[in-house]
């Protein structure tokens, strides 16, 4: 049979099926005709294979579908569904209702905008279907359904409609592989959080910090040890595996508040430009299991847990053990040793950490103290935060008077001195001399500023 005869037979079959559907449903439906006409089957014969993803995978689903269409062609352009309560009914339910009652009809595609980076976004289908073919040539429909937490739709969904489950499953698997190949989350800096709607999980893109080694003021050898345990393992990962060594590592940065633990973490993010970073703080630490799963998928990756003592307090401190502790331990154990994943933890209270977390190799295998700066460190911090200013003050007396000063204290000191300089000379460049610096220091060391010093983590003498 030639192509003309095949096309004629296909059109005739479509007319017969449309007529049968019209008789069965009591009325014609352009929506049903669009579906059954492409698939070459009555609606009750259509098989649907579904896969759900967290809402942050929406752009990846769209990317995978677009890649599949690019490879296999678009036989029926994107179309949508109009009418009814679309947010409360699944796709096959809407089609069945459209067939029986006419509540839904052919409509325009719903689109939404979803982030794909800290300053980039893409348009994605919120609700729509498109016709294409399976690798073997069988007709299939792909449908995307975006999450809508406000209306109880907490996950994104990909649905494949075909006349056989094997065909639909094959196409869904192909789309998933294409999603993995072009994963838009890989290499990003991501922060977990929760939305206002029923506490649904969110994933936010953050810009990657760009700090130089000169901007990290630590005692000699400390930063080298940190880099060797993180950047060094990442750089030599393949050779370490070949030598029978594991890649997964746990690094704990501990020390008083304000000494630069978070600053050091930000520096490491910039030094690992192709590494996925997943940040958990506060209440988002309850999502550590999902973060670990994502980290393994997107390796090389770093999972950052700030102030981990909030969930990993030593069990000897009381009978109540926080369930999140076990979630954290399970997550760290669940990532295999061959995975290029770093768990990077920070705490202000290392002595209170659960021993099972802090002492067991394979969970945390390097603990590094970030101490209060010594005299040389205090001078380096003052000069660091004075960049961009005209600093004429003698730093010697200030360094001597600020034993116990944190990096946060030094940063605020220079800002206050700058404000004093601007108040005295508003039309000139910001020039910080002895008067401005000593006045600012006197204010911050005043007894009435004790709480401010505490909030900055400083124990600087009055």
UniProtKB/TrEMBL annotation:
Transmembrane annotation, as ranges: none
GO molecular function: ATP binding; ATP hydrolysis activity
Nucleotide-binding among keywords: yes
Stretches assigned to the AAA+ ATPase domain: 247-374
Keywords: ATP-binding, Nucleotide-binding
Family from the record: Belongs to the AAA ATPase family.
Name this protein carries in UniProt: ATPase
């Amino acid at each position: 049979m030639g192509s003309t005869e095949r096309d004629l037979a296909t059109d005739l079959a479509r007319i017969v099926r449309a007529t049968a559907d019209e008789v069965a449903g009591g009325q014609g439906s352009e929506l049903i005709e669009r579906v059954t006409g492409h698939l070459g089957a009555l609606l009750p014969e259509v098989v649907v294979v579904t896969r759900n993803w967290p809402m942050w995978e929406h752009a990846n689903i769209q990317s995978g579908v677009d890649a599949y269409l690019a490879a296999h062609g678009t036989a029926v352009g994107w179309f949508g569904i109009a009418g009814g309560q679309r947010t409360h009914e699944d796709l096959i339910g809407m089609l069945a209702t459209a067939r029986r009652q006419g509540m839904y009809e052919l409509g325009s595609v719903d689109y939404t905008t979803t982030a794909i980076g800290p300053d980039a976004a893409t348009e994605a289908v919120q609700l729509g279907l498109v016709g294409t073919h399976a690798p073997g040539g069988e007709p299939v429909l792909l449908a995307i359904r975006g999450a809508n937490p406000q209306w109880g739709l907490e996950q994104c969904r990909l649905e494949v409609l075909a006349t056989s489950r094997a065909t639909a499953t094959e196409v869904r698997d192909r789309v998933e592989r294409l999603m993995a190949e072009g994963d838009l989350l890989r290499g990003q800096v991501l922060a977990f959080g929760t939305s206002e709607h029923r506490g649904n999980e969110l994933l936010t893109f953050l810009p990657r910090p760009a700090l130089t080694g000169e901007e990290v003021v630590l005692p000699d050898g400390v930063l080298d040890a940190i880099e060797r345990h993180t950047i060094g393992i990442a750089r030599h990962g393949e050779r370490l595996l070949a030598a029978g060594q594991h890649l997964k590592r746990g690094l704990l940065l501990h020390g008083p508040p304000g000494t630069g633990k978070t600053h050091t973490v930000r520096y490491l993010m910039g030094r690992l430009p192709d590494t996925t970073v997943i940040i958990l703080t506060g209440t988002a630490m309850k999502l550590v299991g999902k973060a670990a799963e994502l980290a393994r998928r997107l390796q090389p990756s770093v999972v950052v847990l700030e102030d981990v003592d909030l969930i990993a307090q030593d069990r000897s401190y009381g009978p109540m053990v926080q369930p999140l502790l076990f979630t954290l331990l399970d997550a760290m154990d669940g990532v295999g040793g061959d995975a290029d994943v770093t768990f990077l933890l920070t705490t202000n209270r290392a002595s209170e950490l659960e021993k099972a977390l802090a002492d067991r190799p394979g969970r945390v295998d390097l603990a590094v103290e970030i101490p209060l700066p010594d005299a040389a460190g205090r001078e380096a911090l003052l000069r660091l935060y004075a960049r961009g200013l005209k600093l004429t003050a003698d730093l010697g007396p200030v360094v001597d008077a600020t034993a116990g000063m944190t990096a946060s204290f030094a940063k605020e000191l220079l800002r206050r001195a700058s404000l004093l300089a601007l108040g005295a000379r508003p039309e000139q460049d910001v020039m910080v001399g002895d008067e401005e610096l000593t006045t600012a220091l006197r204010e911050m060391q005043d007894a009435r500023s004790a709480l401010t010093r505490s909030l900055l983590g400083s124990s600087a003498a009055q």
